[in-house]
Amino acid sequence: MSEILNEISTYLQAGKAPKVKELVQQAVDEGISPQEILEDGLLAGMNIIGGKFKNNEVFVPEVLVAARAMNKGITVLRPLLVAAGVEEKGTVILGTVKGDLHDIGKNLVRMMMEGKGLKVVDLGVDVPASAFIDAAKEHNAKIIACSALLTTTMGEMKTVVDAVHQSDLNGKVKIMVGGAPVTESFAESIGADCYTPDATAAAAAALSFCVA
Ligand code: B1M
Asked: Which pTM does this prediction carry?
């Protein structure tokens, strides 16, 4: 693999956003394909950070700066990828449910999903069920992903699941849930399609739904 792609991966892991952006531009100028820069430079680095995060070798701040560096690199590539007709792997509607303002974990989920090449429409925090549904229809999404950090707002996930089942999205979108108080058995009890305990696992599961 080209040395510059290794450098992109290394600087991304170190969270050096301006350097990553500069190297991505340099790689483009050297004639390396945008797809190769994305897969073997940016995503390779993000996958390493994701693995370390899962194993508690790095923590939230490191993941946030690495994700920021990845986003800087992607700003250079995005127009080229679209022009080259590289299809995004699928769209995810993501948000923290109604009544809940915690967004740090949700933001990590977003970054990890983007790191897998998924398009994420982030509705933010305090998102009512109707907004998840409207956005999924508008963006032709494959997944609705809900985060909740409070035992008092977990129940809102059932409202989202019920609303999807009663809409014409039923059977067309998968509903993923997560957040500190959420468990596998809770997810099953409300009829969600998937529970994952952390952002890395959420991104892997979302990708598997999108490429299935
Ligand atoms: Co709040 N808060 N908070 N808080 N807060 C908790 C959650 C709490 C456990 C603290 C405690 O009492 N020990 C407690 C909840 C208790 C409960 O319900 N059982 C609590 C409370 C009570 C409250 C308030 C009610 C306090 C008050 O006002 N009296 C209030 C509620 C406001 C509201 O939402 N309506 C409140 C407010 C706040 C702040 C605004 C101050 C701030 C949030 C800032 C922000 O998010 N921008 C805050 C914070 C920071 C916390 C703690 C300290 C940290 C949460 C966090 O960001 N963790 C938290 C205590 C704790 O967890 N130690 C606490 C780091 C983050 C990376 O983890 O979000 O769990 P987490 O995300 C993980 C996984 O859960 C998972 O992936 C991430 C990691 O990979 N994940 C998903 C998350 N979403 C996922 C979705 C998926 C899959 C995985 O698929 C879709």
From this structure: 0.83
Strand-pair category, 174-178 with 119-122: unpaired
Q: Is 114 in the pocket of ligand 1 (CB under 6 A)?
A: no
Sign of CA dihedral 126, 185, 54, 116: negative
Q: What is the DSSP code (8-state) at residue 179?
A: S
**CB of residue 135 inside a 6 A radius of ligand 1:** no
Beta pairing partners, 92 = 120, 143
Look at residue 88 and tell me whether its pLDDT is greater than 80: no
**63-81 confidence digits (pLDDT tens):** 889 988 988 998 898 788 7
Instruction: Please calculate the CA angle 117-93-33 and round it to the nearest 5 degrees.
Output: 15
Atom 4, ligand 1: which residue's CA is nearest? 102
Would the CB of 151 count as within 6 Å of ligand 1? yes
Q: Which two tokens stand for residue 161?
A: 């699941």
What pLDDT was estimated at residue 84?
62
